[in-house]
Write a sequence for this structure.
């Protein structure tokens, strides 16, 4: 089963890296000829689409399927034994891998009521974005943020409880501050950050 | 056993008492030992289980506590890393155009400890901020760093994105860190990651340390702008947490890393590996548990129960990831101490067991005593019964089978006594009978006039009767004296007697003795003894002659056979016999002479008379007639002489001839009439015809003449003589019945004895019937005489009928082997 996990993870990483490579290529193309530049909103939309598709596929055809067949279940402590990473963990860990790849792009899940404080909104922009998304989950909140002299484009998409696994875990985890999530609720947002230089 | 026990191997034999005590002890001891063993085993198992589970729980708890401690430390450190001023300063440094030359210059001066350079770092705002945080100025009340944490923190410094030192609180860390693993792990290509460095020796602080490194993220938390590094003295930091957890004398908690290096232990120094490398994989899985290991990791080889648990949160970040190594708690207690309770219990149970065994032994002794005492009574009683001495009934009142047994013993004893009493009476009776029998036997033997000796198998004389004692005045003590010391015999006779004795008396009766015993010897019988004189059973002892006879005595059960020797003094008998023979001879001669005279006188006187008449007679015719008469008289005389002498023509009588019985009877009658006065006797004849018999006619006639003469003599010249022949069963019986006075009973038995006669001297020899019987028996027949006094005598002669048609040459069956003695003449 570890082999299976490893295969899945490798596949996912390949997908993401491939997608990002393409994005990066597009961006550099834009830099070279500003006339055919691509708007950062588009870039984050693309990235978001890829991430959504990957996570959705993983959730539906790996996690649910394995659990239904009784082969293996998804668990938070997947590293310590038999188990698949939860879909949220899948996204977070792939985000770490993407970040470590060194292209400057970051993505992560942030929540209104995160189980771990590290997944709470880190900046004022993120906090405000989540407030907005709670009311208007259909459209992402975008903006330019800066760290020192560095400028980044950040887009935050509303993130819903896409599967029963999300709801069950958040409603039963002892550290979870909110335990009345329902399927398809907006649980937080997916923040995608790309450097603007 | 009061000396009544059998003496056989008292040492090797276990008495009933010992056995009962032993069996009770065994019955008690066996379950005790088995139970004790099982209890000990089970107890050990359970203690192991319980301890293991407890250790596991304790390890888990300790791990959680240590985890929290580290998490707290990380949080403390993170507060510094999250300080906006520090972030801003580091962002500024990141965005500032890089000046490698200035940086290299500063590094050189830092290494050479140039005061200005050192001050430029240690006194810059970042270092001041670190100081402030550490001393707690920025901490809210209640969140001050504990003293332990402060003292255990050996270094705290910041690097920029290039790994160069930008601020430090204490000490003198190296200037560049971009090649250090912790720095690369924490900076993580700008992504930033918590990095806890495992235990190692740091030369700068001269101690085993662990480090916590945190990235300083930019204000967007997008990327790392620096690294905050903290060096902690492991022993100092963890010991308050781990050393506090002690239980018993040896029980403690320790913290080790995945390689078995001790991070903190109350016993082992920090930084040393566990003594047993094989233990490490057992206790460092990524989940809590307990094992029973063959060593304790502290240098001991005793089987140990070890609880363990990983520090989940800390391990996640150690050396970059959980795969690079994890930290674990290790809970252990010395086996001696761990199993002390069960050993204690064991010793207690053992002690109680001893007490129980002592009790069992005492109870067994008592019980055995209660059981064995009546058994011994019974045993003694049985011995007494065996000796026939039990007088009092056995008194056992245990109320159980032993009492019943005692009752049975009493009953048995009573029955035995009764049986013995009857037996004793009977024995006395029999003894008396035996005594009487012995006395009577002795008296009978003493009364016997012939010497009788009883001799055992060794030729020792056991008994001599009175006649013997008188005949052979004992020359030795009688029971046991040698046979030949009593019988003075010459060498040859001794030899002969010994040979007879060795033949074990198988020829007990010699013919001579037999004849002497039953009937007197027939003096007219040819004496065959002369030919076998060498084998005669006669002994010459002194001047006397003894016939002897062996007889076998039945042996007593288990005893030797003894042989009896009967001696018979035949000296007088032989002498008498010789006299008798002589007398008979002379008697017979007298009778013969008288008979011949009487018979011959008549014809002789007739001849003489006729001779005288012839002398005077002239007439030739008359003379011829007289001469004829003289010839007749002469012939008659010749016949008479022939008959009386018994000289029979042997040529004609050698072979038996088939003749008519009736003819022979008639011829015999004629002969008898010629010699006896029978004119007044009426003769009746009842013949069965002519019955052939195969005989020598003269001898048969002679026998019948004897019988008829006896009958005529008995009737004394007048009476009735009835002659009958009858045929029955291939035998012809000729009966001669007279009407004489009969024979008295006492004489009847002796009529066939030789020399027995009722007639006067010269009238009979006493041999007539003897001769007649011998002759008749020779022809295969027999004579029987019946008589009643006053009613006459019937003499029956039975002979076999000759069935062969040709009389001449017929089988001569009768007593062919006998040496046929010639009949002697009888009157």
């Amino acid at each position: 089963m570890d082999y299976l996990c490893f295969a899945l993870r490798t596949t996912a990483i390949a997908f993401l890296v491939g997608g990002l490579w393409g994005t990066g290529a597009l961006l550099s193309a834009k830099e070279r000829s500003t006339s055919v530049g691509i708007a950062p909103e588009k870039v984050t939309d693309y990235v978001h689409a890829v991430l959504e598709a990957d996570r959705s596929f993983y959730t539906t055809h790996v996690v649910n399927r394995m659990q239904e067949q009784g082969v293996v279940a998804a668990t938070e402590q997947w590293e310590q034994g038999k188990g698949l990473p939860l879909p949220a963990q899948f996204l977070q860990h792939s985000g770490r891998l993407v970040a470590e790849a060194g292209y400057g792009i970051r993505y992560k899940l942030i929540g209104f009521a995160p189980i771990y404080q590290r997944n709470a909104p880190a900046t004022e922009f993120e906090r405000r974005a989540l407030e907005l998304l709670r009311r208007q989950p259909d459209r992402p909140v975008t903006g330019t943020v800066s760290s020192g002299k560095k400028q980044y484009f950040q887009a935050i998409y509303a993130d819903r409880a896409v599967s029963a696994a999300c709801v069950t875990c958040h409603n039963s985890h002892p550290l979870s501050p909110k335990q009345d999530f329902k399927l398809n609720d907006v649980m937080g947002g997916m923040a995608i950050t790309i450097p603007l230089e | 056993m009061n000396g009544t026990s059998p003496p056989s191997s008292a040492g090797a034999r276990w008495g009933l008492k010992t056995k009962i005590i032993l069996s009770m002890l065994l019955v008690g001891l066996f379950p005790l030992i088995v139970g004790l063993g099982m209890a000990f085993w089970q107890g050990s198992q359970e203690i192991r289980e319980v301890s293991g589970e407890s250790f596991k729980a304790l390890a888990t708890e300790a791990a959680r506590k240590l985890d929290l401690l580290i998490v707290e430390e990380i949080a403390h450190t993170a507060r510094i890393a999250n300080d906006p001023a520090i972030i801003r300063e580091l962002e500024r440094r990141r965005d500032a155009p890089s000046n490698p030359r200035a940086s290299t210059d500063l590094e050189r001066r830092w290494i050479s400890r140039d005061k200005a350079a050192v001050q430029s770092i240690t006194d810059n705002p970042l270092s001041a901020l670190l100081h402030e945080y550490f001393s707690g100025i920025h901490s809210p009340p209640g969140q001050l760093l504990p003293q332990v944490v402060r003292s255990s923190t050996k270094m705290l410094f910041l690097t920029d994105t290039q790994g160069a030192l930008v601020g430090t609180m204490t000490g003198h860390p190296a200037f560049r860190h971009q090649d250090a693993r912790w720095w690369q792990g924490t900076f993580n290509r700008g992504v930033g990651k918590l990095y806890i460095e495992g235990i190692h020796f740091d030369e700068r602080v001269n101690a085993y340390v662990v480090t916590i490194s945190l990235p300083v993220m930019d204000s967007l938390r997008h990327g790392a702008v620096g690294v905050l590094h903290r060096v902690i003295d492991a022993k100092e930091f963890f010991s308050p947490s781990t050393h506090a957890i002690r239980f018993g004398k040896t029980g403690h908690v320790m913290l080790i890393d995945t390689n078995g290096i001790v991070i903190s232990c109350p016993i082992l120094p920090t930084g040393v590996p566990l003594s047993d490398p094989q233990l490490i994989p057992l206790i460092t899985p990524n989940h809590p548990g307990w094992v029973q290991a063959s060593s304790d990791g502290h240098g001991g080889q005793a089987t140990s129960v070890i609880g363990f648990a990983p520090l989940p949160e800390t391990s996640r970040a150690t050396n970059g990831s959980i795969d690079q190594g994890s930290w674990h708690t290790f809970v252990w207690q010395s086996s001696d101490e761990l199993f002390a309770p069960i050993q204690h219990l064991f010793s207690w149970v053992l002690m109680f067991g001893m007490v129980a065994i002592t009790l069992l032994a005492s109870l067994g002794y008592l019980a055995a005593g209660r059981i064995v005492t009546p058994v011994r009574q019974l045993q003694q009683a049985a011995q007494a019964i065996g000796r026939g001495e039990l007088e009092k009934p056995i008194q056992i009142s245990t109320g159980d089978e032993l009492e019943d047994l005692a009752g049975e013993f009493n009953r048995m004893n009573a029955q035995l006594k009764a049986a013995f009493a009857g037996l004793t009476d009977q024995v006395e009776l029999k003894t008396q009978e035996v005594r009487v029998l012995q006395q009577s036997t002795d008296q009978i033997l003493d009364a016997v006039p012939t010497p009788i000796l009883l001799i055992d198998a060794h030729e020792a004389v056991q008994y001599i009767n009175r006649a013997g004692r008188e005949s052979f005045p004992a020359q030795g003590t009688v029971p046991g004296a040698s046979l030949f010391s009593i019988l003075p015999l010459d060498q040859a006779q001794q030899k002969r007697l010994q040979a007879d004795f060795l033949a074990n008396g198988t020829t007990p009766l010699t013919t001579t003795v037999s004849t002497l015993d039953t009937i007197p010897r027939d003096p007219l019988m040819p004496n065959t003894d002369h030919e076998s004189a060498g084998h005669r059973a006669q002994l010459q002892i002194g001047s006397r002659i003894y016939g002897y006879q062996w007889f076998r005595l039945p042996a007593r059960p288990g005893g030797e056979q003894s042989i009896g020797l009967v001696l018979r003094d035949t000296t007088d008998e032989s002498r008498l016999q010789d006299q008798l023979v002589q007398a008979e001879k002379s008697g017979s001669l007298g009778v013969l002479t008288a008979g011949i005279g009487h018979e011959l006188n008549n014809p002789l006187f007739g001849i003489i008379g006729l001779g005288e008449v012839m002398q005077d007679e002239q007439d030739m015719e008359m003379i011829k007639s007289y001469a004829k008469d003289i010839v007749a008289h002469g012939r008659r005389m010749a016949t008479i002489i022939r008959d009386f002498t018994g000289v029979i023509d042997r040529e004609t009588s050698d072979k038996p001839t088939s003749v008519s019985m009736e003819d022979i009877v008639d011829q015999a009658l004629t002969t008898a009439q010629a010699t006896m006065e029978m004119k007044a006797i009426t003769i009746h004849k009842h013949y069965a015809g002519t019955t052939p018999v195969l005989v020598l006619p003269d001898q048969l006639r002679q026998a019948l003449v004897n019988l008829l003469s006896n009958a005529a003599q008995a009737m004394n010249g007048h009476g009735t003589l009835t002659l009958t022949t009858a045929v029955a069963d291939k035998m012809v019986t000729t009966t001669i019945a007279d009407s004489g006075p009969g024979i008295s009973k006492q004489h009847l038995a002796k009529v066939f004895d030789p020399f027995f006669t009722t007639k006067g001297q010269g009238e009979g020899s006493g041999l007539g019937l003897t001769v007649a019987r011998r002759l008749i028996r020779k022809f295969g027949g027999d004579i029987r005489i019946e008589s009643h006094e006053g009613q006459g005598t019937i003499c029956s002669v039975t002979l076999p009928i000759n069935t062969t048609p040709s009389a001449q040459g017929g089988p001569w069956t009768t007593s062919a082997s006998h040496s046929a003695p010639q009949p002697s003449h009888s009157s």
Q: What stands out?
A: Residues 15 and 54 of chain A are 8 Å apart (CA to CA). The two ends of chain A are 42 Å apart (CA to CA). The helical segments of chain A are 2-32, 40-68, 87-100, 124-135, 164-172. DSSP finds five helices and four strands in chain A.
